[in-house]
Amino acid sequence: MTELNETGVNTPLQTYNEAVDWINGLIPFGIRPGLERIIELMSRLGNPHQRLKFIHVAGTNGKGSTCAFLTSVLLQAGYDVGTFTSPYITKFTNRFQYNGEDIPEETLLKLSNRLHPLVHDMADTELGSPTMFEVSTALALLYYAEECYPDVVVWETGLGGRMDVTNIVTPVVSIITNIGMDHTDVLGDTIELIASEKAGIIKPGVPVVTLATQPEAVKVIEETAERLRSTVYLAGRQFTYHRLDSDEKGQSIHFTGPFRELDVRIRMQGVHQCDNAAGALMVLELLRQYMAFMLDEEDILLGMEHAFWAGRFEKVIDEPRIVLDGAHNPEGAESLAKSIIDVYPHNKLNLMMGMLANKHHEAYLQHILPLVDTLILTEPDFRRKMDAADLLQIVERVRPAIAKPELEIIVEPEWAKALDLLKSRTEAEDLGVVSGTLYLIADVRAALLHQTDSEKGW
User: What are the Mur ligase central domain coordinates in residue numbering (predicted)?
Assistant: First the structure.
C-alpha cells in the first residue's frame, strides 16, 4: 500500500529492500539498447545530468579497474568523486559511490520513490517501462546532481557504448579501454562492429583515450573521432608505457605521455592492469593539462598505488592460496593465464569455473586450460547460468588438443561444495583460482571473507 511520508509525498516503497526488489523486478524487461527511455526519464526530472562533469569509461575488459584508478587519484588530489559502475560484487549500493562510500540506503530509498511513479507512467506509453539498468542510471544521476554534488563523476558504460543508457551524458574526456569479443549477441560478432558500438561514446570535440590494439578497431575509433573533431590519444602512439618490475605485492610501470614521464607503482596484479593504469594516467594528464584539474605528481603516485578493485586477480586467502578473477571472455582468460604465470609460481593449478550461457567459452578455454591440473566445473547462482554438464561438453571437445594428459575434471553444480573441493585440493605449493562470471565471484568472495550482507547482481 502507498503511504505518505512526513512531507505528504506518496512513498510506495517503504524500505531499502523493497526499493532494491522493485529495481531488480525490472530485470525481465531485459537489455533494450537505446536512449529513448532514459532521455524521457531525464526530461521529466529536469535533466539533472546536464549539471555534472563526467569521465566516460567504455571497453570490453578493464573498465572497473580503470574507474578504480581514476577515482583513487582524484580522491587523493582532494576532489569529490562520484563513481558509477556495474555489476556490483557485494551490495546493490556498491554501484553508486561518492568519495569511495556507497550511497546510503535511506537515500537510495528516497530516490527510488521519486522514480517509481515516473517509471509506472512511462510503462503505459509507447516507450514501455524503463529497464533495471535505465532506472539504476537515472538513480545515479539524481544522486550525483541533487544529493552529493561531486566535482566529477567516473561513469562506466553498462554494455557497448553507442546505444548504452550511460551515453546520455556529454563527458569532459572519454576512454575506451580495449576491444574484444564479448556480448556479441547485442554488439555484433566482429571486432569492427564491437569497436563501432564502443566508439559511440565519442562526443564532438571531447578527447578520447584508447588502449585498443587491433588495427580494425583503431581504424573505427580514429574515423569516428575525426568525424566528430575529437582528438584521439592512442596507446603506443600518443602515449607509451613499459613494465619495470613486479612481485606478489604489486608492479611498476614507466609512463611516457605528451606532457611528462612518470614511474608509477600499482598494487593491482597482472600485466593487463599495467594497460589500464596507463590509460587512466593519460586521462588524468588530459584533465590536468586542458581542464585545470590540480593533480600533483605525489597525489597521482599515491592514488595509483592505493587503487583497488575487488574480484580482479585478487588473492583473497593465503592458506590455501586462492585467487579470484572475473575473467569471462577470451581476452580476460588470456590476461588471467599470463598473470598466473607471471605472479604466482605454483606446483599444481586448481581452477574452479562457472559461466553464463551466452559467452565464448571455447575461446576462453583455449587460453586457460593448458595450465590447469584440476578443473572444477560449477554453476553460478544466477538465472542465466550455464549448466556444469553443458560446460563439461565444451571442455571435453577442446581437451584433446590443449589440455595436460593428466587433467582431472570434477563436476559439482553447487558452487559452495565446489569451493570446498577447491580448498581441500589446493596444497601449500599449489594455486587455487576461481574464475568466470562475476556472479560466481561475488558469492565465492563473500564466502571466503565471511561477508554476511552480500547481495550480488547486475
Answer: 57-283
Beta-strand relationship, 96-98 and 101-102: antiparallel
Paired with 98 in beta bridges are 82, 101
User: What predicted TM-score, i.e. pTM, was given to this entire model?
Assistant: 0.91
Residue 77, C-alpha cell as written in the block: 588530489
Q: What are the cell numbers at 71?
A: 577515482
Q: What is the helix, strand, coil percentage profile of the chain, to 5?
A: 45, 20, 35
- Strand runs labelled E in 177-219: 208-210
Give the whole-angstrom CA distance, residue 372 versus residue 408: 9
Cβ contact 293:77 at 8 Å: yes
Question: Whole-angstrom Cα distance, residue 15 to residue 129?
Answer: 22
Residues in the chain, pLDDT under 70: 1-10, 30, 182-189, 359-360, 452-458
Q: Strands 96-98, 81-84: parallel, antiparallel or unpaired by DSSP?
A: antiparallel
133-161 pLDDT tens trace: 999 999 999 999 999 999 999 999 988 78
Residue-wise pLDDT tens digits, 330-344: 888 999 999 999 999
Report the alpha-carbon distance of residue 73 to residue 391 in Å, rounded: 41
CB atoms within 10 A of CB 41: 23
Q: Give the max Cα distance, the chain.
A: 70
Distance of alpha carbon 68 from alpha carbon 14, whole angstroms: 33
* DSSP symbol at 74: H
pLDDT given for residue 186 in this prediction? 60
Please work out, in degrees rounded to the nearest 5, the angle formed at the alpha carbon of residue 353 by the alpha carbons of 395 and 422.
Answer: 110
Q: Strand pairing of 250-256 and 261-266?
A: antiparallel
CA distance 399 to 12: 54
